[in-house]
Automatic annotation (TrEMBL):
PANTHER family: OLIGOPEPTIDE TRANSPORTER-RELATED (PTHR11654). It is a multi-pass membrane protein. GO terms for cellular component: membrane. One of its GO terms (biological process) is oligopeptide transport. One of its GO terms (molecular function) is transmembrane transporter activity. InterPro entries: MFS_trans_sf, POT_fam, PTR2_symporter_CS. The lineage of its organism: Eukaryota, Viridiplantae, Streptophyta, Embryophyta, Tracheophyta. The chain crosses the membrane at residues 66-85, 92-111, 186-205, 211-229, 328-345, 365-385, 405-424, 444-464, 485-510, 530-552. Belongs to the major facilitator superfamily. Proton-dependent oligopeptide transporter (POT/PTR) (TC 2.A.17) family. The keyword Nucleotidyltransferase does not apply. The gene is LOC111285349. Gene3D superfamilies: MFS general substrate transporter like domains (1.20.1250.20). It is found in: Membrane. It comes from the Eukaryota. This is Protein NRT1/ PTR FAMILY 6.2-like.
Amino acid sequence: MSLTVADAVDYKGLPADKSRTGGWIPAALSLGIEICERLSTMGIAVNLVTYLGRTMHLTSAASANVVTDFMGTSFLLCLLGGFLADSYLGRYRTIAIFASVQTIGTFLLSVSTRLPQLRPPPCQATEVTQCKQASNFQMGTLYLSLYLIALGTGGLKSSVSGFGTDQFDEKDEKEKAQMAFFFNRFFFVISTGTLMAVTVLVYIQDEVGRSWGYGICSASMFVAILVFLSGTKRYRYKKCLGSPVVQIFQVVAAAIGKKNVKVPSDIALLYENLPEALQIHHTDQFPFLDKASVVTEDDYGDNGSFRVNPWKLCPVTRVEEVKKMIRLLPIWATTIIFWTTYAQLITFSVEQATTMERTIGHFQIPAGSLTVFFVGAILVTLAVYDRLIMPLWKKWKGKPGFTNLQRIAIGLFLSVVGMAAAAVAEVKRLSVAKKFSETTTLPITVFLLIPQFFLVGSGEAFIYTGQLDFFITQSPKGMKTMSTGLFLTTLALGFFFSSLLVSILKAVTGSSRKQGWVGENINKGRLDCFYGLLAALSFINFGLFLISAAWYGKKTVKRAPEVEIIVEESSFEEKC
């Protein structure tokens, strides 16, 4: 067995020596960055809505939209981070640069919450509209802090998991097993960081001070960067191979440029320049894209020499990779709505908690910490699935657990039930609010909200792992980073759709005389109707997902009759 890794180099640019580079310890050093990123992002997100309402004096709907826009931007910028890592910087530099950006953002946020000049004067009025709202300068400083954090999160998040897997050689059975362990524990690490954020960090923000909480985020990320940089000499580095986004644009541009060209009936005449072992066999689906592989007179120079312009002529394998990505889109589109329901748990559900009885003895639970039930549901679900469901399923069906599409379906269904439970809980809360309209804290226990947190949290455990597995294993091998970014965009679009939906409902159901379903005060709104609408939309989306999954399964079977393709794809799934 070779003592070096064929497709990796060390920090000097020499072939990576297995005995001196890579392995579990260097991979684990990158997990510190991921834990601190979750600590910062979620610690801010789950408790930001209370700060915007109580301190900055924003309305309920405006506060929710600020949070969802912040989270949506964080995940959308993962595409930028993936592009820079693949095309120019590499994953190591991308992580180091954008982790530093997030550190600066959290430090600035700590300063902005500390200085009295950067927030409006305190107000004890029961209606937020009677208080002086934050000025444009104060909100601008807050936005600068938040979107620096979003930029840092988006830049590093798309590279951390990939950089961790770069530390293992897939051709080495021992290291392949270590990589599988790394993948299995990656989401658990994310959840651990989130758990620390919604318990310890939220408590510090509420009881000690916001600036202290955000300062801890900045300091922990700074320490994580130092730990990450300490492994520089032990890491394995993969060379930049170019962005898959550019490759997709090349195929589309070549196909459009040859829109009037007829595809030959003999597919052997189509252009291919890759060795047999790396080729993907031609499929009949999306025949328009095949035009990108048709050789024409324009592909020859004046002297008759054959020349290849990737924007005018693409090999069949490149075209088939684009086709594979297109086949993923229906599944991608039908998973967006889940993250819209998820957004409500860190915005409106936290606002609900602020109006309810939260004391246990002499201790008052911070409203943002109620999401601990959400994170707890994730950890419990993962443990039960790993230790109970998978062994039973293997004995019964002979398969090691549910397929990725089955896990996504379970997650979507649980979100439907979760939103229905949220609507029922809000009906009960509003009935109490009508009787005690002048009371700051309503005489109704906050534990009434536990079912919605638990159901959607369990749903995330299934859908997050299912999506990650689906987009990595079903995408072309050369587009693994892009497929991870594609998965993360579902989170971004889910948060943005939440903001859009809130804005539309505020305009449609409200007027100058009434606030509508969502608005200044949730005790005077109809949040139950909003949750009911989300439950209905989620149910419709669940049906569309089942249709899309059936279509995807049918097309997958139909397009892979050859043994070679089946062996190649199953081998790739095992590697991932």
